[in-house]
Amino acid sequence: MNTIDFTSIAFSTIPAIITGGIAYYFFKTHIQNENDRRNFELLQQGKKLTLPARLQAYERITLFLERINPSQLLIRIKPLGDNKNVYSSILLSTIEQEYEHNISQQIYISEECWNVITTSKNAVAHIISEITKDNLIKNSQELREGILKKMLDTTPPSAIALSFLKAEVFKIL
Questions:
Q1: Contact 155, 167 (CB under 8 A)
Q2: How many CA atoms lie within 13 A of 138 on its CB side?
Q3: Short-list 94, 168, 92, CA closest to 125
């Protein structure tokens, strides 16, 4: 009689255990799906809130890159005298001020993009410094001409960075 009771108990409890296991699995899956859905909705809301700020940052960086483009920089900043070293210092100082003015924008763009922008700024400054060191260039007007000639021969670093920036904006839209 003891085995009959155990068998009847087993036959009545096994379906309950299986049903409980299946219910546990479905509830666990349902809760996980709900958590994933909520996280996705929060992420989408966050993107809606940050997208305008990110786009504004990209706009400001675009303006920065245009302003440090040597051809634009030379039009905007005219030499105060004939001294090429003074003019070069003014140009380099202007580039650095523009960069510092926009440095907070790096929190809205990718690290890779910010590195490209920083490299572009440094490359433009390097071009100006190298042309300033040329002993054949005697005054600020010749410096301007030398920088413009260099830009005719190569693509300005700021234009390369701008292309990278546009590609990154296209990815987030």
A1: no
A2: 0
A3: 92
The answer to whether 113 and 164 are in contact (CB under 8 A) is: yes
What's the per-residue H, E or C state across the chain? CHHHHHHHHHHHHHHHHHHHHHHHHHHHHHHHHHHHHHHHHHHHHHHHHHHHHHHHHHHHHHHHHHHHCHHHHHHHCCCCCCCHHHHHHHHHHHHHHHHHHCHHHHHCCCHHHHHHHHHHHHHHHHHHHHHHHCCCCCCHHHHHHHHHHHHHHCCCHHHHHHHHHHHHHHHHC
> pLDDT tens across 71-129, in order?
999 999 999 899 999 999 999 999 999 999 999 999 999 999 999 999 999 999 999 99
pTM above 0.70, yes or no: yes
C-alpha to C-alpha distance for 151 and 139, rounded to whole angstroms: 19
Residues 37, 32: Cα–Cα separation, whole Å: 9
| CB contact at 8 A, 94 and 73 | yes
